[in-house]
Amino acid sequence: MPVQKAVFPVAGLGTRFLPATKAIPKEMLTVVDRPIIDYAVREAVEAGCETLIFVTGRTKNAIADYFDRNPDLENELEAKQKKDALEIVRNIIPSHIQCIYVRQSEALGLGHAVNCASPLITPDEHFAVLLPDDLIDGYPVGAMKQLIQAHDREHCSVLALEQVAWSEVEKYGIIKPVNDSTTPVQIESIVEKPKRDAAPSNWSVVGRYVLSGSIMPILQNVQRGTGGEIQLTDGISALLATEKMIGIPLSGKRFDCGNKVGFLEANLHFGLRYLDK
Hints:
By secondary structure, the chain is an alpha/beta fold. The protein is built from 9 helices and 13 strands. The protein has a 9-stranded mixed beta sheet with strand order 5-4-1-6-11-8-12-10-9. The protein starts with a strand and ends with a helix.
């Protein structure tokens, strides 16, 4: 069964970008001329996902507004013969794509956010998860397409991987590979934010996943872990006990737009493309 559904956990408060995020969802902050969330959505659509599930909070209405049609704006642009601008706003998202919005009532962690989409995911299908804070300029194809291509070959869950400095392992979910000299990497276990001395490797999980729908009932029963939150990593760890899982070292460049330095680097990277045109 092809991967056709993508989940976007976008309910976070974005406190690192206050005061801007007091009024603007962090996912709507722009990298050059498009919101961060737009890049993740384009990546999912490129990969073949046709149902986009946004797990939002009560302050995130701007995300739905962005992907919705705006007849008043379109009529005004058409009346003023601003054809280029009209084309842009009409084609933010292809017409065959379905957007669904699910409310996360409490900020209980990434595992809880993903599980909020469980009524829309069947146990026998695989689905994509994209964390918009990780903005990835994939090469030669988008990051999610790389994962889905691997899923189509191996018929199992797939995690995006990136090697980080050993001094950084405490910030990430870290996998233990069966053998890290082969690609794809078969995953033996995973742990959330281990101490450097206890880390099984320096292979970190980046914010892209293709997961079996059978993880949903697991997440419903996961106890709160690191930071007192329901961790997606803990659900993946439990899933590993019954299912094969692989990791794909991503081809491309990742920007951590969850912090100011990464956000500025992304703007510079994508902004330079406009100078080349």
